[in-house]
């Protein structure tokens, strides 16, 4: 059993953890070239080639806004289509929930004097939070996000299989993320 986190992007983060939460694979996937549809097609193939039939998969949900909306939409749908064709179930996690799982809100400062973190600041806050929570570090923010999703996959699996007493030992913000995922159905796969 492996726990998989996928952060779809032009540089897709892919992380696989073993049953104990140790990193088996942490890789940034890019596909071939910079021209679509070849880049997107080969990227989707590359992502799917790293997924095994018994993996427990969590994928980041669709981004709310992006400079490259067409590419992002195509990539997200392409990955989901391939998972569906291979009858591989998966769970989706909203982008903000990924950050919430490591206690990053996207804001800094004291009440009454808060400001929103900008792109690089937010990515650094997430990297710092992952180091603080798990001791994991990587230069790629895509891999860091995929690592968080792999951790979410592991916690979700433990809760669903009664191995962990539903949130026992987790911070409340992590329980909120797991609970929000459990409220939604697992993506149905072809029979």
Overall 3D shape: globular
Low-confidence stretches: none
Q: Outline the biggest β-sheet.
A: 5 strands, mixed
CATH architecture: 2-Layer Sandwich
How many structural domains are formed by the residues?
Answer: 1
Distance between the termini: 21 Å
Look at the structure and give the CATH class. Answer: Alpha Beta
Overall pLDDT level = 89
Strand percentage, roughly? 15-25%
Instruction: Kindly identify the CATH topology.
Output: Nucleotidyltransferase, domain 5
Rg on CA atoms, Å: 16 Å
Q: Count of helical segments?
A: 6
State the CATH superfamily name.
Ribonuclease H-like superfamily/Ribonuclease H
Q: Classify the secondary structure makeup into a structural class.
A: alpha/beta
Proportion of helical residues: 40-55%
Number of strands: 7
Q: Trace the largest sheet across and list its strands.
A: 3-2-1-4-5
H and E order? EEEHEHEHEEHHH
